[in-house]
TrEMBL record:
Main location: membrane
Bias (Acidic residues) ranges: 588-597
Domain Cytochrome oxidase subunit I profile, first and last residues per copy: 61-545
Subcellular location: Membrane
Pfam family, one: COX1
Membrane-topology annotation of the record: Multi-pass membrane protein
Family assignment from sequence similarity: Belongs to the heme-copper respiratory oxidase family.
The protein's name in its UniProt record: Cytochrome c oxidase subunit 1
Positions of transmembrane segments: 6-25, 70-94, 114-141, 153-173, 205-229, 241-271, 291-317, 329-350, 362-382, 394-416, 436-457, 469-490, 510-530
Chain spans, region Disordered: 567-597
GO cellular component: membrane
Keywords in alphabetical order: Electron transport, Heme, Iron, Membrane, Metal-binding, Respiratory chain, Transmembrane, Transmembrane helix, Transport
Length: 597
């Protein structure tokens, strides 16, 4: 009877999906318009074409294939996921302020731990990068749109159901509880062996959601590779391709090889859980899962960090007043990281008892991959050396990225050493290390991009003071939280524990204070972001950062200038009244420059 009910539900959902597809086909002729993008049209005709052909309201966002609209959808989705994952971890940190179980149960803590990791990596990290790349890659390379606009839209619309499946255990669904496997989903725990909570359908739903997110990322990667190879303007060669596009191209190649393996491993795990197969529920199955997972999992780190490196490499020189130092070496180091990233996965497995000769080879490659990362770091520092530094909000986040990345990178080099890793494995040291990369570097670069390109996608300027408050609270909170975790790891505190010995209480409380400071910074960010979008001063100058003064204008700002020139004048403020990110008006800044001269 239960099988028949499940079959009926499956058929019903299939009919529902077909009905939705038919309705979307009716409400809009998908061939009726070609979305406008990076300079493909100029003049008033383009604006009239948009207003006549594009649907409005909710239908526009449900049916759009415009790369800029899809970039906005990715951005909104990623920021919502960032908020959900952030609130999860704040609740965990409040619980960890006391050594015993106080606020939430240990099982619910495990649920939050699992969902926080998956949310931040798969529902925030990858989509926020897709937001920037969808909006700006076609503009930077002079393309009209992505190579496959409809596939681009499909790739995004796979993500909302993926999030619902991953979070399904938190919804009031009968007999479904959240997964408690941690984000690595190690077997035999995740295979449902025994009579614990992992036999619950919440784990299956989470795995299906992860699979959907992987399909989405793979479709997007194919699209970006095809776009950068085939849709570039004839003036954009490989020699003058911008650094952000290089990092997205490399990231897309990594996705193409890494995510399908994760999808295959997830399907094997689902078959073990539901159809009686024995991929992982045998001797050696736990080691097999770790090999399959980390062959994806370590390239995933670079999938997440390479595009933020590209953002910093693009934004930082604009506020240093000079071009990126050693551009070719930054490109070569990007490609080197992409290749080497597939040769380091087993450094996550030094403590599993694998052959010492294998461990030594993986240690060598793990140490070697630090070299191209160091090349980038020295290039960023040299770019700032003797430059005309302007401490705008995007520049502050770029500098914060570099400093946090150095700490995260150096602590990672220690973990690449077998003797050190055997001591620190599965302690809070590991948690502090990768959070310096994920929050201290990746999120900081994301904020740098959001502030730098804010005038383009909103047409307004954010509140400068609030932006800098956001940076300093984030910087202080990040270092308080994660440096305390590194010290906890040195003290021997194991990760993933909801309770702990009293001697660790002080450092846990410091980490909790840091997390609350981080929360305050993100609240300021949300207020500034939304309020400025609604009421901020309108941008009337296509070069709001005065990049032309140093001949550092890039293609997206040229497109933005044309967009402003073709817009209908609405009686906005004169551009001389627009405050720069230094808190002074443009006239004041020009006067100071004249005095200095």
């Amino acid at each position: 009877m239960e099988v028949n009910g499940q079959l009926a539900l499956t058929v019903l959902m299939g009919v529902f999906l077909i009905a939705v597809a038919a309705w979307l086909a009716r409400v809009e002729d998908w061939r009726s318009y070609t979305p406008l993008a990076g300079g493909g049209t100029v003049g008033g005709t383009a604006e009239q074409y948009v207003s006549e052909e594009k649907p409005s309201g909710v239908i526009r966002w449900l049916t759009t294939v415009d790369h800029k609209d899809i970039g906005m959808l990715y951005g909104a989705y990623a920021l919502v996921a960032f908020a959900v994952g952030g609130l999860m971890v704040v609740l965990m940190r409040i619980e960890l302020a006391d050594p015993s179980m106080t606020l939430i149960s240990n099982t619910f803590y495990n649920s939050l731990l699992t969902s926080h990791g998956i949310t931040m990596l798969f529902l925030f990290g990858t989509p926020i990068i897709a937001a920037f790349s969808n909006y700006f890659i076609p503009l930077l390379i002079g393309a009209d749109d992505m190579a496959f606009p409809r596939i681009n839209a499909i790739a995004f619309w796979l993500l909302p159901p993926a999030a619902l499946l991953i979070w399904a255990g938190f919804f009031p669904i009968p007999d479904v509880i959240p997964a408690q496997t941690a984000w690595t989903m190690y077997t035999p725990l995740s295979a449902g062996v025994g009579s614990g909570n992992q036999v619950n359908a919440g784990v299956d739903l989470m795995l299906l959601g992860l699979h959907l997110s992987g399909v989405s990322a793979t479709m997007g990667a194919i699209n970006f590779i095809a776009t950068i190879f085939t849709e570039r303007n004839e003036k954009v060669s490989w020699a003058n391709l911008d650094i952000f596009s290089w990092t997205i191209l490399t990231q897309s190649g990594l996705i193409l090889f890494a995510f399908p393996l994760l999808g295959s491993a997830i399907m094997m795990l689902l078959f073990d859980r539901n159809f009686g197969t024995m991929f992982f529920d045998v001797d050696g199955g736990a080691i097999l899962w770790q090999h399959l997972f980390w062959f994806f999992g370590h390239p995933e780190v670079y999938i997440l960090v390479l595009p933020p490196m590209g953002i910093v490499s693009l934004v930082l020189p604009r506020f240093a007043g000079r071009r990126l130092f050693g551009f070719k070496f930054v490109v070569y180091s990007t490609l080197a990281i992409g290749v080497l990233s597939f040769g380091v996965w087993a450094h996550h497995m030094f403590a599993t008892g694998i052959d010492p000769r294998l461990r030594a080879s993986f240690m060598a490659v793990s140490l070697a991959i630090a070299i191209p990362s160091a090349v980038k770091t020295f290039n960023w520092i040299t770019t700032m050396w003797n430059g005309k530094i302007r401490l705008t909000t995007p520049m502050l986040f770029c500098i914060g990225f570099v400093s946090n990345f150095i700490i995260g990178g150096v602590t990672g080099v220690f973990l690449a050493s077998i003797p050190v890793d055997l001591v620190l494995h599965d302690t809070y040291y590991v948690v502090g290390h990768f959070h310096y990369i994920v929050m201290g570097a990746i999120a900081f670069a994301g904020f740098a991009g959001l502030y730098y390109w804010y005038p383009i996608y909103t047409g307004r300027m954010y509140q400068v003071t609030l932006g800098k408050w956001h940076f300093w609270l984030s910087m202080v909170g990040t270092n308080l939280t994660f440096f305390a975790m590194i010290l906890l790891g040195y003290g021997g505190m194991p990760r993933r524990y909801a309770t702990y010995l009293p001697q660790f209480a002080t450092l846990h409380q410091v980490a909790t204070v840091g997390a609350l400071i981080l929360l305050a910074g993100q609240i300021i960010f949300v207020w500034n972001f939304v309020q400025s979008w609604l009421e901020g001063r309108e941008i009337e100058d296509g070069d709001p950062w005065d990049l032309a003064d140093d001949d550092l204008v890039t293609a997206e700002w040229t497109w933005f200038e044309r967009k402003l020139e073709t817009a209908v004048t609405d009686g906005g403020e004169d551009e001389t009244d627009l405050a720069t990110d230094g808190g002074r008006t443009v006239d004041d800044a020009e006067a100071d420059s004249a005095d200095d001269a």
